[in-house]
Amino acid sequence: MTEIISIHQDQADYPLQFTSVLEVDAPASLSTLGNLDLLQKQALGIFVSVRCPGRFILQAHDLAQDLRRAGVPTISGFHSPVEREVLTILLRGEQPIVLCPARSLARMRIPKEYRVPLEAGRLLLLSPFDERVRRATVQTAQRRNQLVAALAEMVFIAYAAPGGKTEAFCKEVLAWGKPLYTFEENKSLIEMGAMGITAQSATLFLDPKTQ
User: Fold this and answer.
1) Most exposed of 7, 47, 79, 185 (fewest Cβ within 10 Å)?
2) CA atoms within 13 A on the CB side of 4
3) 0.90 cut: is pTM over it?
4) 160-197 burial by CB neighbour count: b if 16+ within 10 A, else e?
5) What span, in angstroms and rounded, lies between the C-alpha atoms of 1 and 61?
6) What's the confidence (pLDDT) of residue 210?
7) Which of 132, 136, 131 is closest to 99 using CA atoms?
8) What does the alpha-carbon distance between residue 136 and residue 83 come to, in Å, rounded to a whole number?
9) pLDDT reported for residue 40
10) Nearest alpha-carbon partner for 70 in 86, 100, 90, 41
11) Closest CA to 180 of 49, 53, 21, 44
12) Which helix H or strand E contains 195, and what residues bound it?
């Protein structure tokens, strides 16, 4: 099993996206487990909240299947029930995956389904939290989500309730100038500047240089 490696801001492997997007809020160091080369991939950030309506959950499953078939690199906390289902689908493919838990990697139990992808070099675990943070909290999840969106080349959010925290997060992502995608039925997000897609739109997220 790969060992946990720490990366600091002054090191070459530290993602420049954090300092360019988050500036002074960028984490001073990161803990990593897996293939560091995955930090150079143009990944799609995936967010599916616990309160996502059923019709969007079904579309998220279909989109995950399409992302797996297309081989789109992805990054997420993969924490909510639907996000975990999405991860299960993606792990059956061959595309790169960056997983960002909302806790430290220290003493974290590595699920057996992660071991083959880790050894194959297509899975990376990434965390900004030190060894004292052993449980995910609302605060660490919010920080993790910010980092996922900052590192992602593009961001997909399945649903955001009007006036809710996810909608506020969408506004933050759009303010950064990040391409933000959602399902076509999310009219409020599209009016804010998100781009509407279907569950068969995975090829939109492929890096043109790899096609």
Assistant:
1) 185
2) 18
3) yes
4) beeeeebbebbeebbeeebbbbbbeebeebbeeebeeb
5) 30
6) 58
7) 136
8) 15
9) 92
10) 90
11) 44
12) strand 195-197
Q: Name the strand (E) or helix (H) holding 127.
A: strand 123-127
Looking at the DSSP bridge assignments, the partners of residue 7 are 30
Where does the pLDDT of residue 1 fall: very low under 50, low under 70, confident under 90, or very high at 90 and above? low
Tell me the two tokens of residue 131: 């060894």
* pLDDT, tens digit (0-9, with 9 covering 90-100), for 27-61: 999 999 999 999 999 999 999 988 889 999 999 99
Torsion 19-24-28-34 (CA) sign: negative
- Taking alpha carbons only, the member of 98, 109, 104, 100 closest to residue 135 is 104
Place of tokens 């993606």: 90
